[in-house]
Amino acid sequence: HADQSFVECLTAKRMQRARELLSAHPELPLKAVAAHVGFEDPFYFSKVFRAAHGMPPSQYAAGRRLEGGPL
């Protein structure tokens, strides 16, 4: 991670944890997932998640509910 700034590294870790939470508990409200990974604003969390993964967290969670396994 030498080529990443501290903020980029922290954001990557937060997004990884968000994916883990959404995979394990797709029924969790996005506001709760956002707060758990350190985002006070669920709308900003959604924006960052979409930029990192190409889809909003709600779509990722919906896929988890339908498929029943990690993406």
Features:
71 residues; mainly alpha; 4 helices
Describe the structure.
With 71 residues, the protein is mainly alpha-helical. The protein is built from 4 helices and no strands. Helix 1 runs parallel beside helix 4 (57-67). The N and C termini lie far apart (24 Å). The mean pLDDT is 90.
Helix content: 55-70%
Count of alpha and pi helical runs: 4
Global outline: globular
Low-confidence stretches: none
What is the CA–CA distance across the termini? 24 Å
What do the pLDDT scores average to?
Answer: 90
Radius of gyration: 12 Å
Number of strand segments = 0
SSE pattern, N- to C-terminal: HHHH
- Biggest sheet record: none
Strand content: under 5%
SS-based structural class? mainly alpha
SSE diagram, text form:
Blueprint lengths: L5 H19 L5 H7 L5 H12 L3 H11 L4
Compact overview of the structure:
The chain is mainly alpha-helical and 71 residues long.
